[in-house]
Automatic annotation (TrEMBL):
InterPro entries in the cross-refs: AB_hydrolase_1, AB_hydrolase_fold, AB_hydrolase_sf, Epox_hydrolase-like
Highest taxon, organism lineage: Bacteria
Protein name: Alpha/beta fold hydrolase
SUPFAM superfamilies on file: alpha/beta-Hydrolases (SSF53474)
Organism: Jatrophihabitans telluris
Domain named AB hydrolase-1: residues: 35-270
Top-level taxonomy: Bacteria, Bacillati, Actinomycetota, Actinomycetes, Jatrophihabitantales
Alphabetized UniProt keyword annotations: Hydrolase
Region Disordered, residue ranges: 284-304
Amino acid sequence: MGAQAERAWSAVSVTASDGVRLTVYEAGPARPEQTVLFVHGYPDDHRVWDGVAERLVDRYRLVSYDVRGAGRSDHPTRRSAYRLGQLARDILTVAESKSAEPIHLVGHDWGSIQSWAAVTTDEAPARFCSFTSISGPDLSYAASWMSHATSRLRVAAARQLLSSSYLAWFQIPVLPDLFWRSGLGTLMLGRPSTPSGRSDAVAGLSLYRANRTVPLTRRPARCSVPVLVLAPRADTAVSRELAMEAPVPWVSDLTVQAIDGGHWTMVEHPERVSEPLRSFLAAHGRNAQATSVKRRKPRDRPAT
C-alpha cells in the first residue's frame, strides 16, 4: 500500500491446517460483517493489492495474506503442500481467523484459482457472502469450456491454448527455476528483481507442478456464492471469453464485466478494479447469510 495505508496495517501469524505459518495483514474498521479478504496470485505477494486496498480501507475491514511460498509466509518444500485442496483450506483458515460472519473474497490469478476451490466447498455458503474473480478461472470450469467450445469459440479456445503454453514450460525440471533465479522472469514482467521475489517465484512453481492434473481429474462443482468476474480486455494469460463464459453453467448468481487493462490491472490502474468491486460489495454485503460459523477461532500470533 501507499505510505499512509501501510502504517494502518497490522500483521499476525495464522497456522494452516498442515502446520504451515501464514502471515496475515489487516487494516480498516473492525466491522466483521463487512470484511474483504484478498488473495494474490503468482509470482506476487499481498502487496499486489495495495492500490485497490487504498480505495476501500475507509469503509471495509481489509484482510490479505502472503500465500504459502510467498512473502513472509512459510515456504514449504513438499510439492504436495501446494495442492489445490490445501490452498482452499488456507483461505478458509484465514477467513475464520478474522471473522465469525460471512466475508467477501477477492482473488487474482492463482489467488482466484484457489478461491474458486474454496467457494465451491460445502462450507462456502456460510463462509462467503461474495467472491470476485480476476484473471484466474476455476481449472475444472476452464477445462469444460475448452472441451465444449462451439464453433463460435474455437478460435478463442485456440488462442487460450497458445496463451497457456507457459504451463508446459513450468513443468520442466530445473530450467524454469533457473529462469526465475537469474532475474529474467521479473525482468520480462517489468518488475523489480529482488532475491526474495526470485525465491518466491521458484517456490511458487509448485503451484503448477502440484496441480497439473486438476483440470482432468477435478469435476466441476456448482457455486452458490454470488460471483463477480472482472475480465481485463488486454489480459494475455486469460482470455475474456474464458473468464466470462466458463463459469456460466456452474454459478447460480454470476455477474461478468470486462474492464480495460492487462493481467495486472489492479496494480497499474487500481481504480478499474476498485470501482466495480465497491459496487458489487455494497450490493451483496447486506444479503450475506446471518448464520455465524460456529467454530473455534484460530489464535493469532505476532508475525515474525
